[in-house]
C-alpha cells in the first residue's frame, strides 16, 4: 500500500475504453484514453464474531463488523465490566471467523492518457494513467466512509497489434480509491490490478 490504509480489499472491474490519437512520431504514439466501468465490484473482509456468555446467565450473541484492518480468525475468553456498576461483570468465550462482503458500483475515468513506445512495431510497450470517480451502493471500505469516491491509476504493459486496427493489451496498474475527506473516515484503498483489453478501431 502507498496511500491507502484499508487492508485486504479486492477490486474487480468490467468496462469499455475509448482512445484517440493525439501525437504520433517515430518514438511515441500519445493517445487520449477514457474508461467507463458499469460494473465495479469491491470486496471488504468481514469479521464474524460469536460470543457465548456463561456468566451471570447463559446467552449467545453474534455480529458482523467491517474494519480497516485485515480480518484475523481467533478465539478466547472475555470479561466485561459493566460501566455503571463496577461490581457487575459478564464473562464467556468468543470465536471470530472471516468472510467477505462484495459491493457493486460503477466508475468513470474521463481523464486518461496512454503512451505507446516503438509505434512502428507490432509489439509496443506502453504507459497508461487515469483519473475519475466511483459510486457504490454502500459506503466503502468501511460503513463510516463514503459511497462516492475519487480514483486514479498508473500502469504499464505490452500491446500486441494483430493488424493495423486490432490489438490485445496486457497491463499491470496501481489503482487508488479514496473520498478525499468528504466523509467521516477516509482510509483509502490501494489495489494492484491486472487488466486485459481487446482493442479495435477504424
Percent of residues in helices comes to: under 10%
Mean pLDDT score, rounded?
A: 95
Distance between the termini: 40 Å
Tell me the Rg in angstroms: 24 Å
What would the CATH topology of the largest domain be? Porin
pLDDT < 50 stretches: none
Total count of domains: 2
How many strand units? 9
State the shape: elongated
Indicate the proportion of strand residues.
over 45%
Q: What does the model show?
A:
- This protein is an all-beta fold.
- It has two domains: 10-44 and 101-200, Porin; 45-100.
- It is 0% helix and 70% strand.
- It contains no helices and nine strands.
- Strands 1, 2, 3, 4, 5, 6, 7, 8 and 9 form a nine-stranded antiparallel beta sheet that branches.
- It is elongated and about 80 Å long.
- The mean pLDDT is 95.
List the helices and strands and how they pair.
Layout: E1 10-24, E2 28-55, E3 59-66, E4 74-81, E5 89-117, E6 123-136, E7 148-161, E8 166-178, E9 189-200
Antiparallel strand pairs: 1-2, 2-3, 2-5, 4-5, 5-6, 6-7, 7-8, 8-9
Provide a quick synopsis of the model.
The protein is mainly β and 202 residues long. It has no helices and nine strands. Strands 1, 2, 3, 4, 5, 6, 7, 8 and 9 form a nine-stranded antiparallel beta sheet that branches.
Tags for this model:
202 residues; Porin; 9-stranded antiparallel beta sheet; 9 strands
Amino acid at each position: 500500500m502507498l496511500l491507502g490504509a484499508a487492508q485486504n480489499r479486492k477490486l474487480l472491474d468490467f468496462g469499455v475504453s475509448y482512445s484517440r490519437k493525439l501525437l504520433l512520431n517515430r518514438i511515441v504514439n500519445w493517445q487520449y484514453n477514457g474508461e467507463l466501468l458499469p460494473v465495479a465490484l469491491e470486496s471488504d473482509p468481514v469479521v464474524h464474531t460469536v460470543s457465548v456468555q456463561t456468566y451471570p446467565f447463559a446467552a449467545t450473541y453474534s455480529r458482523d463488523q467491517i474494519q480497516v484492518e485485515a480480518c484475523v480468525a481467533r478465539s478466547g475468553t472475555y470479561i466485561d465490566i459493566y460501566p455503571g456498576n463496577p461490581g457487575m461483570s459478564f464473562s464467556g468465550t468468543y470465536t471470530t471467523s472471516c468472510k467477505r462482503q462484495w459491493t457493486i458500483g460503477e466508475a468513470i475515468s474521463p481523464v486518461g492518457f496512454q503512451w505507446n513506445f516503438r509505434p512502428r512495431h507490432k509489439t509496443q510497450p506502453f504507459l497508461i494513467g487515469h483519473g475519475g470517480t466511483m459510486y457504490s451502493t454502500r459506503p466503502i471500505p468501511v460503513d463510516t466512509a463514503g459511497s462516492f469516491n475519487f480514483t486514479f491509476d498508473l500502469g504499464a504493459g505490452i500491446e500486441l497489434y494483430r493488424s493495423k486496427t486490432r490489438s490485445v493489451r496486457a497491463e499491470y496498474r496501481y489503482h487508488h480509491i479514496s473520498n478525499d475527506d468528504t466523509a467521516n473516515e477516509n482510509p483509502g484503498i490501494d489495489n494492484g490490478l491486472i487488466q486485459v483489453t481487446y482493442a479495435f478501431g477504424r
